[in-house]
Automatic annotation (TrEMBL):
It catalyses: ATP + H2O = ADP + phosphate + H(+). PANTHER family: BCS1 AAA-TYPE ATPASE. The keyword Transcription regulation does not apply. This is AAA+ ATPase domain-containing protein. Its cofactor is Mg(2+). Keywords: Hydrolase, Magnesium. One of its GO terms (molecular function) is ATP binding. Residues 249-397 form the AAA+ ATPase domain. CDD domains: RecA-like_BCS1. Belongs to the AAA ATPase family. BCS1 subfamily. The keyword Hydrolase applies.
Length: 503
């Protein structure tokens, strides 16, 4: 084929999207022109067939463009474009030469994207694809006067091989979308909502949720902790499963145990682990069942809805009995709440809001109740299906202590560990109190000092516990116990005398 038969139009098209290939062809053409005078005809025809192959290769590529705006009038922001931008941010920051950085109120960290005319490559199911960021003047309509004005529009161009234009391109773009949603969920600034005072536009007010709690720092039996973490991960990835069984994608957690065992801390750990928002639902501030429904409906997906101290947060009427806290501090709060509360929320209203029709709005929600008194709760409230997982938060065991020692003292073994183990078997001490004793109070406090402090506190607690038991016993059966004690003392004195006499 003579040199003049090169398609210049094809060449320039190629150069547009395939900068590298274009320059290679330009080189080949230049060489061809130069060599025409000196090279034999067979070499020239070989060169020309090689160029043709390269051109064919470039023509076997398909370009799919995704514009920043979509719709008939090109005046709607295209969600797919935004998803691609997020998806490519990681690849762009690693490979693109020119980047743009942006940081919205909703994100925790800056988001990088490709500047115009930048390229990155990606691989999916073993197939390589190429992305190019472009801009051009396209006509966009003005929605008010139907005018169509030229405007600068950005778009991403996906270049795939001809064979991959159908099923592959479809599943690749779905994959891009899914990953983008995961990335934005991880990167977004999370919120802590409360209904205590109510917002201007919404029943909830919010602040930024920035709690440092994590499962790594939560002291509890490691096997139990792993089980909870697995359960949460399984829940968050079970979208298809819930759709298959036709149920709302939600899960109920009941956290129960004495004060200071980490129930509230566990809620923060759950939210941080899954990257969810937190809604603290104060039932005493909810007027009636329909407001409760509205509140639940306003909660977003990927959230933890919390009702703390469910046993004393509301006087749930109906045929249910009146609940009242046994904890004196909480009893006081409960009495104060009763005075200010105008709530008419009933237990059935609460149950309906949790698992009825209303909870089907949005999805991926975890509902958590906490209580110090499991026995006070109405069985209907905590039955399986409503509260799927019951987690007992217990007093500090030796395993939990070891975790706290690692967190607070960077210590994994010490001679005093055996003493602590023996004492924790005898004494009930909450992780909150153990943690407080392990915290160094000044720069000189080392692991040795803190552990001695803890052992001292445990011994003191054991002493008090024994005293309390004795006082209780005496109070319970004064006539029986008191003479028994005298008898025991007399017996031991007699035994001693008897032994001495024998000697
Ligand atoms: N298991 C734990 N691991 C690490 N720290 C803990 C743990 N439990 C409690 N703490 C510490 O004790 C403090 C109080 O714990 P938290 O408020 O979570 O207890 P709670 O069970 O919710 O108590 P209450 O029943 O009174 O609401 C926390 O700030 C945390 O630092
Ligand atoms: Mg709490």
């Amino acid at each position: 084929m003579p040199a003049s038969s090169f398609s210049m139009a094809g060449f320039s098209r190629l150069g547009e999207s395939w900068a590298e290939l274009g320059s290679a062809l330009a080189g080949l053409m230049f060489m061809h022109a130069m060599l025409q005078q000196y090279m034999p005809t067979w070499f020239l025809s070989y060169l020309s067939s090689l160029t043709k192959k390269l051109l064919n290769y470039s023509n076997s590529k398909v370009q799919i463009s995704v514009s920043e705006f979509s719709g008939d009038r090109m005046n709607k922001r295209n969600q797919l474009y935004l998803d691609i931008e997020i998806y490519l941010s990681g690849l762009a920051s690693a490979h693109a030469r020119r980047l743009k950085a942006d940081m919205s109120n909703k994100s925790k960290t800056p988001v990088f994207s490709m500047d115009d005319q930048q390229e990155v490559t990606d691989e999916f199911q073993g197939v390589k694809v190429r992305w190019i960021s472009k801009k051009e003047n396209r006509r966009r309509s003005n929605s008010l006067n139907n005018d169509s004005t030229p405007d600068e529009t950005r778009f991403y161009e996906l270049v795939v091989h001809e064979n991959e234009r159908g099923k592959f391109a479809e599943s690749y773009l779905l994959h891009v979308r899914e990953k983008a949603q995961e990335i934005s969920a991880r990167n977004r600034q999370r919120k802590l909502y409360s209904n205590k005072s109510g917002g201007y536009h919404s029943l909830w007010t919010d602040v930024i949720f920035d709690h440092p709690a994590s499962f790594e720092k939560l002291a509890m039996d490691p096997i139990k902790k792993r089980e909870i973490m697995n359960d949460l991960k399984k829940f968050s990835s079970s979208k298809d499963y819930y759709a298959k069984i036709g149920q709302a994608w939600k899960r109920g957690y009941l956290l129960y145990g004495p004060p200071g065992t980490g129930k509230s801390t566990m809620i923060a750990c759950i939210a941080n682990y899954l990257g969810y928002d937190v809604y603290f639902l104060e039932l005493t501030a909810v007027k009636n069942n329909s407001q409760l429904r509205e509140l639940i409906m306003e909660t977003s997906s990927k959230s933890v809805i919390v009702i703390e101290d469910i046993d004393c947060s509301l006087n749930l009427t109906g045929q249910r009995r009146k609940l009242s806290s046994k904890d004196p501090v909480k009893k006081k709060k409960e009495d104060e709440d009763k005075e200010v509360s105008n709530s008419n929320v009933t237990l059935s209203g609460l149950l309906n809001s949790i698992d009825g029709l209303w909870s089907h709005c949005g999805s991926e929600k975890i509902i958590v109740f906490t209580t110090n008194h499991l026995e006070d709760l109405d069985p209907a409230l905590i039955r399986t299906g409503r509260m799927d997982k019951h987690i007992k938060m217990s007093y500090c065991c030796f395993e939990a202590f070891k975790e706290l020692a690692k967190i607070y003292l960077d210590t994994e073994s010490h001679v005093l560990f055996d003493d602590v183990k023996a004492l924790l078997n005898e004494v009930n001490m909450t992780p909150a109190v153990v943690a407080e004793n392990l915290k160094p109070k000044c720069a000189e406090d080392d692991a040795d000092t803190c552990l001695k402090k803890l052992v001292g506190a445990l011994q003191e607690a054991r002493g008090k516990a024994v005293d309390e038991v004795e006082v209780k016993d005496v109070k319970a059966e004064p006539k029986l116990i008191a003479p028994m004690k005298v008898m025991k003392k007399l017996m031991s004195k007699l035994k001693l005398k008897h032994k001495k006499a024998e000697k």
